[in-house]
Amino acid sequence: MEIKYLMIDRAWPVLLMGSIEHRALRPERPERISSAGFVRFVGTDEGLKAETYGHSEGLDLSPDPEDAELITLFFCKAFPKSNGGEG
After folding, report:
1. Alpha-carbon span 40 to 54, nearest angstrom
2. Which of 32, 37, 45, 48 is paired with 24 by a 20 to 30 Å CA distance?
3. Which pLDDT value is given to residue 46?
């Protein structure tokens, strides 16, 4: 399943699961949505990392270069690298 996302005010990532479409969350002020696309999470030596890709047809937006880093900070830092089951 692909995970969709949109970024609000270049700072607040929103993940969309399942059949929810990007355009379903269009706010009263659509200019607040700064970018959108798809995200996948990959395991690295440092833990989980977000990778953004694709294009939102419904919003006609693509990922910004910093989106993956922001999504990683918001959603992946709670899952640090495994250290043998401790902590």
Report:
1. 11
2. 48
3. 82
Q: Are 25 and 14 in contact (CB under 8 A)?
A: yes
pLDDT in tens, 63-84: 999 999 999 999 887 655 554 4
Q: CB of 39 within 8 A of CB of 7?
A: no
Edge-to-edge strand list for the sheet holding 33-44 = 12-16, 3-8, 33-44, 47-53
Strand partners, 28: none
CB 53 within 8 A of CB 63: yes
CB 16 within 8 A of CB 36: no
Quote the pTM value. 0.79
Tell me which of 31-35, 53-57, 58-62, 78-82 is least confident.
78-82
